[in-house]
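Request: Have a read of the protein record below and say how the chain folds.
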Amino acid sequence: MSPRLVRERVGVAVALAGAVVAVTGSLFLPGAAPARAAVVPVATTVPAPAIGANASVTVSQTSDLGFEAIHLSWKGFPSSGADLSTNEVRIYQCRPDPKSAADCYGSETLASGSDPTALGGLNGAGPDGPGNRRKGITAPDGTGSVDFVVETGRELTSLGCNSTRPCSLVLWKLTQPSAELLNSWTPHVAIPLTFRLGAGACSINNSDFTSEGAPVANLAMLSWTARSCAGTPALNVDYSLLGDTQARSDFAAGTVDMALTTRPAATGATGPNPVAYAPLAVSAISLGFLLDDPVTHTAITSLRLNARLVAKLLTQSYPGLYGSGGPPGCDPTAPITGPGSAYCPNPGTTGNPVTIFADPEFQALNPGVAWAKDFTAQNYFPPVLTADGEDLTHEVTRWLTADPDASAFLKGTKDPYGMHVSSYFLDAWNKGNVRYPLDTFRTVDPTSAMNMTFAPLSGLDAVVRQAAAGAPAGKDPSTISDQDPGHQPSSYSAARQGARSLFVLFDSADATNLSLPQAELKNAAGSFNAPTDAAVTAAVKAMTVDANGVRQADYAATDPALYPLALVHYAMVPTSGIDKTKAAKMADFIDLATAKGQAHGIDNGQLPDGYLSLPANLVAQAGTVQAAVRLQAAPASTGTPTPSTSPSPAAQTTSPGTGTGATSAAGGTTASGTGGSGTTSGASGDGTTSGSSGSGTTTSTSTGGSTASPRPSATVRASASSSARATPKASSTAAFTTSARTGPLVESTGVGRLAILLLIVIGFGSVALGLGLVWYSRGGPASASTRSLTRVLPRMWK
């Protein structure tokens, strides 16, 4: 074979091989998101002839759903009457084509021998805990509307709604709302619901690294971990929804690879390896509410609170229904054995307004509503909040100590209207048994009714579920029966629309997802702001920065535009001392979360609404940290310390400890024991010891086209939700077919991107070389390298 023919054939082969390599690499190169019809959901209207001749229901979204709130409205329904006592519209999430209320989660049809598959329970609950039942009312003109929280198989396992298992939304007209079982099933309408596809089940048995903490970052973490496990190569993150305090302690003990936190650990409490803090997201602590005007029965959508009012709510300083009246000489600390003994004056709140709505300070901040002065027209319940060791709790109570009026109230100074802090709380404060800031909310009031109604829940996830149910936490003392030997009270159910009264202390992302209004809070400048993007951005700019680059709120900052309770969420990661393969995986995850993970949307990998995208300086900081984690070389400080005029955030130290409970601690420390470890924190020179009980169980969930096991009330392990919670503001009409992608084929991160780019360069170089050989073999000019290669090829061919 002639040298010319050899050159030409080799040139063709090299060019073809190079083209294959370049095209293959291009397929794996992350690029623009695939074409998707991202649109605002189109409302669906269906007739409801079984309820009224001209009745119809309009639903804001019926497809591509996740755990989120949707809006319902109806017309042509019978009026609920002036006293709202009839024609209640009961709204349920049910199985497809429900045959009876037994097919609806939280109905009053209990499982029995005749129907062991019934999804009912007491007070709107069911086999998986709190449900999402709503009780709507219809105006005299036949119209009504309400928000409804749709839940997936991750939340309601027994119902199991997911991308392959549709469900339905039912509106059922009850003429006798007090007894659901006495009503005919006929006057109802069922509307099909379909759910979006998740990223697929992610392995937590063979995870690349473990992480835990930051319950306020849960929605973002669920989204990011669902995306990461669908990448190539897959990045499986074992994420546990534990409290921040526990996460820092476990990180220091070496039982978890990455701790998610909003506060830094103190020097010496980070374990054997140097650490850095990579910013992942920004959000805010929120006081969500679900309130109705006691006269018009319409929803209240704006509310103002100052720090002192929040302090009143958290210190059990309102007596409430059961502590504001009762028989003379009764003992409020005695066990409640029946409805009669539920009511007994609370000595700790003598002289105080019975509820926040009757508080003159609250009324002055929120004019224009005929707030009830008693329980005749408006109920009151203590706020729904978490009992676990959360940074959320610490920051709220740190804010209260930084506010002069709230701080004075906590120490016994009356407000301008004469209201005082609960004497039980003040006694505990004076004895050093409680101090703010603290990590765990607990009841200091010994009265029986208050201990039933003020009931912090185990875990922020339980708070979110309770908020989704629209029901107060705790138990109702008036439901205790004289005939019940165990004297067990029932849980509260969601109130009927028009009489709702609910406060929830959680985070802005969950509040946004559930469509709960969020209170405007007073900042140090005297301005009231809700946690909008602009107000949270202003708060981040005003934050202090420590030597680790960790930013925390400065509650003395005087920018009138800021929202006071903003948070930056960090990944606390080792920068040396761990296996480089694991380190690379952790760096890849940080890169994913802080790059494409900052774009808002409802797809897995995107940032849910309610979070603020990281500012450019925090993205740069995250890049510095992820590079250091990848190299496993401890970096220099990633931030310049800035002074603050507010009380400094509590430093965290970890020490061995056992047991629970509250005891005095000197030296400005707060010691908290959980299970076999303890955490000590201190701020502003105040100190006490508070404890939370034991350790909860950790249950693994891995969903995505299949349902998960029931979520426990304690700790939760969630590798990837089949549909990360998101708001219904924007959705997509096309589902991913195999995985969540951001490139033409797959998602790649970190070092993988460099390898792919190198592959593409080699491919195109080979194409050029091959074509050069062909050109030269046919008599064209060629470069020196090409001519040299042609002299070698014939010998290689032989």
The mean pLDDT is 79. The two ends are 10 Å apart (CA to CA).
